[in-house]
Specification:
Elements (H helix, E strand, L loop, with lengths): L2 E8 L4 E4 L5 E4 L4 E3 L7 E9 L4 E10 L4 E3 L12 E2 L23 E9 L2 E8 L2 E4 L4 E4 L2 E10 L18 H10 L23 E6 L8 H9 L3 E6 H7 L5 H16 L3 E5 L8 E7 L2 E8 L37 E5 L4 H16 L7 E5 L1 E5 L2 E4 H6 L2 H6 L4 E5 L10 H9 L4 E5 L6 E2 L2 E2 L12 E5 L16 H7 L5 E7 L4 E2 L8 H12 L7 H11 L12 H8 E4 L11 E4 L7 E5 L5 E7 L8 E8 L4 E5 L9 E6 L1
Parallel strand pairs: 14-15, 14-16, 16-19, 20-23, 20-24, 24-27, 27-28
Antiparallel strand pairs: 1-13, 2-3, 4-5, 5-10, 6-13, 7-12, 8-29, 9-10, 11-12, 17-18, 21-22, 25-26, 28-30, 31-36, 32-35, 33-34, 33-36
Amino acid sequence: MSRPLTATCHFDAPDLQTDAEGVTRVTVHGCARQVTAGQPVVPFRTLRLLLPPGCTATGVVARTQSPASKLPGAWRLELGREPAAFAAAPFSQPVAPVPAALPVPYALAELVSVQRMAGYDLAVIRVYPLAYAPDTRSLTFASDVTVEILLSPAPAQTFGALAGRIPPSPHSGERQRVAAAADNPAALSAYPTVAPEAAPDPSAHYLLVTRAALLPAFQPLLDQKTGAGLTVHAETMENVTNQFAGIDDAERLRTFIRHAYTAWGVRYVLLGGDISTVPYRGVYAACSGTVYTKMPSDLYFACLDGSWNHNGNAVWAEPCDGETGGDVDLLPEVCVGRAPVDTAAEVTNFVARCLALEQSPAPRFQACFAGEYLFDAYNVEAQGGNALDALLPAFSNSHCPVAWLDDRPLTIPVWGTADALAALNRSPLLVAHAGHADFYTVMRFSRSNLNLLTNPTPFLLYSTGCHAGEFDNGPGADCIAEELVKRYARGAFAVLANAREGWYDSKAEERYSGEFQIRFFDRLLSDEKTSIGVAHQLAMQDLLGSVETSGINMPYRWCTFGITLFGDPHQLVRVPLSLRFRATPAERMVTWNSWPNRTYSVYRATDLTVAPGVCIASNVPATSPLNVYTDSVPNLIRAFYRVAAE
């Protein structure tokens, strides 16, 4: 008999905003929105529930805790639109509404998939607080929904590298990571534990895979990792292909990484080469009439359970290619970045960028936002700047000044190549781009302009544009994201870019690709010790409930596979958790967003050029969700404070 696992979601009252045309956009705090072309857009919350050992999910049922209430009025909800590409011109057309007599959604909750992280199974469920009846235009709201997952005994599993399945990690660090990802972390108590010293610590292990001829040029980077306290492992592709089984080099490499994770506890993996040195996996992606069967994706090397090709055909990562015919594994065990280098000279350039960030003599924390007019998609004047506006809370909370390149409110470009290069040459630390791109061009400059970059210190660029990260073209045909991290002595220390198209909504430009960008910077700027690989990984984890498992439009799935990190996944972007002035002599309180299981130090200075100032408190424990510290010294006329994680 199956055993139930339950959880209850509590929802705030919905916010309904009706425009001049009588169309209502409904939102609920803490919820994403289900967007299907032609269907009413409804909010949902993602639950990730850790399953008990030896069990699998067979279904989900839901009930309201108290009777659902009908909202007064007749509502015409916003309809989902076809995703538009950040291409040279929009190529898809709006779709007609899909007639629907039944409420949308059709149930209070649905089981999306069962995912696996560090050997633990998590059920991913969408829970819907609102139901919409299109025929009567009525909305029904449930403030409390209890979800019950039906469980049954899981079939016996074979663990190990060749089996393609990872056993539950006993290490406390991995268990904490699973607990942070699950909405029922107490369920971990059902799993056995071992002494911490008996299991490798994944957060302390770093792996480089490259070919033998390039390995010496990477040594300064490996030395820096060793100096930072990491245990470094380096392996050549020649040895990987000779010693590990697989139908091709990509599978052999993934089998080796799985071995490195389970045997050594590797957490960070740098793929040290372009595709002629380190292979990639081509995967299935479909959206707005475009279908790829071999879109390049390095996520294959991060998510280590299952084969990603359950049906054994020539197309990988279809929604039916998971272990039992469900979805493939989308919760990474390791953080993966790619150094897209072909020669020792390119390795030297790449490594120099990584080391320059660590060795920068002065703290540097400023950003550049580049927003483009996105053409007249569906007779809507879409703007990339609108998408970038959604990044501002994370940057503002971190007291990061932002310089803008912005076409708004005009419908013609107001900034160009010279402006973009000048902005980058002022050495911002973080750069966010929402606009058009292609294989050769990003932020309105091309590969031929890269020799004009003179930025003294490197930057991180995250672009939502199309094809800027198309890295599967071999030597001599490198995309602009690759060139930015390796061609010259100046440029980026890391780039996040799309291997194929990026996607947006013509009336909500921050949707799809922009949501991944938002989540990345939210994660990166929330903790002084977050690496870019971890931030990228957590952004995908945050949006897991939106990833589609069927249909012809799957933009979230596309983005999950296609956003590629060109850079060192362990690279830290050190940002102040709090930097604020004492506005009046009496104002002595310092606040910051804390991180679980951390302690903090608070510094005070009377001169901005003094770094970091005088430590006025140390070993301050984290309090959720906000830490508050009051300076004991009153009546300082001038002071500013910085908080650092210990």
